[in-house]
Structures are given as structure tokens and as C-alpha cells.
What we know:
N-acetyltransferase domain-containing protein, single chain, seven-stranded mixed β-sheet, two-stranded antiparallel ribbon, acyltransferase activity, transferring groups other than amino-acyl groups, alpha+beta
Amino acid sequence: xxxxxxxxxxxxxxxxxxxxxxxxxxxxxxxxxxxxxxxxxxxxxxxxxxxxxxxxxxxxxxxxxxxxxxxxxxxxxxxxxxxxxxxxxxxxxxxxxxxxxxxxxxxxxxxxxxxxxxxxxxxxxxxxxxxxxxxxxxxxxxxxxxxxxxxxxxxxxxxxxxxxxxxxxxxxxxxxxxxxxxxxxxxxxxxxxxxxxxxxxxxx
Length: 204
């Protein structure tokens, strides 16, 4: 599922020349130009959700499935692990994605086993990055170790070599992820012309 993120720009104290972004906080969709509304409406009905609230699906699942209906816990889910995942994703967002005013984020990518290794995942990725290129904005993804080569083959690069680990303190089970970013089309053109690095963090 691709999600289009929009934030208000405020000065970023951690990176010179960068703008830190702040959500509207009202959970409403961002204003769109008249000519863009039909296309975005179709996109949202397919696999995208154009929302400005940063917490999204994980927060919704946690609140609905665990705290409201199963306050004492349940055998097929662990509230502590949902919390660790949510807090970890917030930390990644603050450190790596906050410097983008507008970007597309790939939140979930799943392929039915019947259609694996037939290009279905690549097609879904290309669908989102095509929209991002049309708008001139970057794409971001928090990838599993297994999914990393797929994203790299589609133009994503590591924002850091460090693995991000989501884990409940005291437990052996953990989730390891990589943060990858695909720069906007304009940034990639500038990089090729100047010979600078492929990924450029900037405010768009």
C-alpha cells in the first residue's frame, strides 16, 4: 500500500539546509488541485491512501484489535510488540523522513504465493514510483532484509547502512529493517549532471 505524505515545513535543527515537517494534526486529507483530484481518487481506491496523519495503519490496528476489544491480550498478537513496532517506526520517520515535505511511502507490499517471482511485486513498486516521479517527489520504504534487493533494483538506496531493530526488551524475537529512499526525479538528474551522490536529502 502506497501512502502520499504531506507535511508543513518548519526549520530542521539537525540538518543544515533541510526542512523538518509537521503534520496538520487534524487527520484530514491535504488540499489538492482540481485537475489532480480525479487521478488521486482512483489511486486511493486501488492501493493508496492519501492521508496526512503519520501513524496510519499500525496505530489503527493497535487501537482497534488490542486495546479496545482485547484489553487483556490475545494469543495471536502481543500488545508490547505492536508498541515496539510503532515506536520504532516513529523514530525512523523522525530521523530519515522528516526532511521531506512531500513524498510517497510504501507501507505494505505483499504478493500472493501463486504469483511470486512473476514480476507482480515489481509492478506494484513501479506503480508508486511512477506517481512520485510525476509529482517530482521522493519515495521512502522501511524494508525487511529479504525485500532489500528488490527495492535496490528499483532505484532505492540505503539511507544508512545500519539495520533498525524493533524488539521488546528481554525478548529474543526481533524484526530487522533497512531504511531506503528513492530520490525524486529532479534530484536524480542533478546528481547525474554534477556527479554528486545519488541520494540528496532536501525539502520539496
